[in-house]
Write a structure and sequence with these properties.
- By secondary structure, the chain is of the alpha/beta class.
- The chain has one domain (about 5-80).
- It is built from 3 helices and 3 strands, in the order βαβααβ.
- The protein starts with a strand and ends with a strand.
Length: about 80
């Protein structure tokens, strides 16, 4: 089985860059059968707070709250 670990440290100050790992996990790996996890370090840890997720909306990708929800539904593992 293919495995992917996405490591990110980008926090909510840059909504688009912060959302991309979740987009790749939920709408890329998660839909193609690749076992996937996201490792959050530094400022990225803030993205796991529901109140932060509600405010983060990147350009050209779904809102972070939707991406996190989709990631959870697809069995993506979060490492904090």
């Amino acid at each position: 089985m293919l495995k992917l670990l996405i490591v990110t440290s980008q926090g909510p100050d840059n909504a688009t860059t912060a959302s991309v790992p979740f987009h790749i996990a939920a709408n890329g790996a998660g839909t193609s059968g690749v076992s996937c996890g996201i490792a959050l370090a530094g400022d990225a840890v803030e993205l796991m707070k529901p109140e932060v997720q509600a405010k983060v909306r990147g350009i050209g990708i779904p809102p972070l709250a939707d991406l996190v929800r989709s990631s959870i539904e697809r069995g993506i593992t979060f490492y904090i």
